[in-house]
Amino acid sequence: MADLALPETPTKAQTWRQGDVIFRWLSRGCAFLVPALIGGIFLALLIYSLPAIKKFGVGFLVSPEWNPVTQEFGAASSIFGTVVSTLIAMLLAVPLSLAIAFFLVELAPPAVSRVVSTLIELLAAIPSIIFGMWGLFVFAPFLQAHVQPWLASTLGFLPLFQGPPMGIGIMSAGIILAFMILPFICAIARDVFLLVPRTIRESAFGMGATTWEVMYKVMIPYGLVGLIGAVFLGLGRALGETMAITFVIGNSHRISASLFAAGNSIASTLANEFAEATEPMYVSSLIALGLVLFLITYLVQILAQFLLRRLYRSWSVGL
Amino acid sequence: MKPRPPTGRRIVNGVVSGVAAASALLGLLALAWIFLGVLSRGVGALNVDFFTRLPNPPGIPGGGLANAIVGTLAMTGLATLLAVPVGMMAGVFLSEFGQKSRLADHSRFAANVLMGMPSIIIGVFVYAILVLPRGKFSGYAGALSLGIIMLPVVARTAEDMLRLLPNTLREAGLALGAPTWKVTLAILFRAARPGLLTGILLAVARVSGETAPLLFTALNSPYWESSLAGPTPNLTVTIFNFAMSPYPDWQQMAWGASLLITCGVLALNLTARFFLGEKHS
Question: Which residues lie across from A250 on neighbouring strands?
């Protein structure tokens, strides 16, 4: 009677179907892990910064005091340094990267454009710490010897360019940041320009417009959303850049009007002080600084993604 | 009506073109300046000792960074082992199952956000969940933070590369009676191999120069470590510590390590580009 018994082991097709169910859930779990990580980072930062938030309240954001000895902590000087160095970087990097994208798309012969594109992208691949080494030992002394004395003598009536030229400080941090975010903005701007339909470009040329007029009056308005997205992406990078800034910003918790002065940023404060902090309130305040940085970059990222998404969707290109 | 002479517009066009070309030149100049700066200062530090010996105390010339090289390789390797399977599977979901579902949408969005998240925040996160509870710095924590940084890069490139494959490939496999997991792993992964390898290489390149997430997870150590359970020596944090020290010997070592890291990262990037170029041609 053995031949009438139901088969105990599943058939090959059944195992395979089970395999598919497992495979699908496994991949679903992995995909879920990414948003879960973002949520987890936020929660962990929030929980560990609670003691500092409870003690200092909103005053944490505006107090310039940072004294591990008296356990008084405020984020103002770090936020100030982050904002000013980012501002310098954006002022330099945005026009520069748009100009380079213009050169790559409209002016350079294809072969040159390909090589220059690759090289500019390699600039993005250079690790932050290498920028830091170069900034501290090569670029800051160069600024100190050649650029800052000249700025002080010509524009020295402005408080921005007063004080001893030390090389390291907010100014060199901003300039190095500009070189670090330039490739990111440039790459997206180039893609945005390349996505403008040929017919639109060519009709502008047909009307007798010069290359610059086509760029300025047709391509830039057409891709404006994408360009703003690119700028926000660069902004997000600049705000959170750590090692290069830590090397050259000078690391002082002081707010100064002069760009020559040493300062600090949120990321550089974390990099410098975290491993040495032992007091619970000190650690909690540092993590609260991290939370501030997380929230700022998260907001900037969301804006950037939103703009770029809208652009790509309207042009029916997958993001 | 007399047409407006185009002279003024031509001049503007010429000036702007000149500025654009000069900007491109400036970008290339910066790259050359950095690369040559690192090369000229670092090449003197690279010798056999650099790759085989431990760092000397300050003031005693010689010594090397063998422990840091091994530590960096070990942590990057472990991070790759953590991030690649998870990232690949996430990419499979985004391209094969989820596509336009809400989870896929959120996951894609989160991956983009995570890619732009400052790496030091990842370091703080791992410090909070792993270092604080265990009460000590460890190479495992360092590898975990590197893995988290790699994850979104691997996931997004895996998705993009799988999406490029024609649907006929999937249909042919399924028509033969193969289950989806087998079609994906045996057919799609094989067809997309150059692209997937590119993604992994770029992710490895991205983390092999990372310093910020290691500062308070792996920390650093001047000794040989037999496991990743304690503070682990690594090249990038060593560069930071040595560069900030007042000793010329140590600064020289930092330049050597910088050269090593720069060349490694650039080589990985160029190899990745080579793979990608081969696929497109």
Answer: A263
